[in-house]
Design goal:
This protein has 85 residues and is an alpha+beta fold. Helix content is 21%, strand content 26%. The strands form two sheets. A three-stranded antiparallel beta sheet has the order 1-4-5, with no helix packed on it. A two-stranded antiparallel ribbon has the order 2-3. The two termini are 27 Å apart.
Length: 85
């Protein structure tokens, strides 16, 4: 997890996710500053899989350019995209 206060540009690598398969980079969908990290993940990384929409969040970001949100997929579009991947 990145440190609070770290800033990222859209597309920057913000961390990595390890599993039984090779590790994968996590890329920033938006630019901003990390304002909070989920310390519970350090103790129990499985939360990212067991409760990704609840207790398994990674970190919170204060956006530096809210207009970047316009280029992201909504939940319906992402669900369709990931089903075909």
């Amino acid at each position: 997890l990145p440190a609070v206060g770290t800033t990222f540009a859209q597309g920057d690598v913000a961390g990595g996710v390890e599993s039984v398969k090779p590790a994968a980079d996590g890329y920033m969908p938006v630019s901003g500053e990390v304002v909070e990290v989920n310390e519970a993940l350090r103790a129990d990384p499985s939360l990212a899989n067991s409760d990704p929409l609840g207790a398994g969040w990674f970190f919170k970001v204060k956006l530096s350019d809210a207009a970047q949100l316009d280029g992201l997929m909504d939940e319906t579009t992402y669900t369709s995209f990931s089903a075909s991947a």
